[in-house]
Amino acid sequence: MAVMRFRQAIVAALTDEMRKDPTVMVFGEDVAHAEGPFKTSEGLLAEFGPLRVRDTPISEMAFTGAAVGAAIMGMKPVVEIMFMEFLGVALDQLVTEAAKLRYLSNGTLSVPMVVRASCGSGLGFGSQHSQTLENWVAATPGLKVIHLSDPQSAYSLMRAAIQDPDPVMVLEPRILYGERGEVDTSITMKIGKARTLRSGKAITIVSLGQMVNVCKGAIEISGIDAELIDLGTIVPWDKEAVLESVTKTGRLVVVEEAPESGGWGSEIVAAVSAELFNSLKGAPFRITTPNAPVPYSGILETRFVPTQEDIVRQLKHAIETGEKPKTWWQLEGISQ
Amino acid sequence: MKTSMSRRQDIQSNQLAQYERMLEIREFEEQINALFAAGLVRGSTHLCQGQEALAVGLASVLRHTDVVAATYRGHGIALALGLTPESVLGEIMGKTNGCCGGVGGSMHMCDMDMGLLPTSAIVGAGIPIATGAALAFQTQGTDNVGVAVFGDGASNIGAFHEGLNLAAIWKLPVIFICDNNVYGEYSRIQTTTPIEDLHTRAESYNMPHFALDGMDISAVQAGVSEAVKRARTGGGPTLIEAKTYRFAGHSRADQALYRPAGELEKWLERDPIKVTENAFTAQGILTPESIKQMKSSMKETLEKVIAVCTQAPEPTLGSMFENIWTPTKGSR
Question: Among this protein's residues, is A129 annotated catalytic?
Answer without folding.
Answer: yes
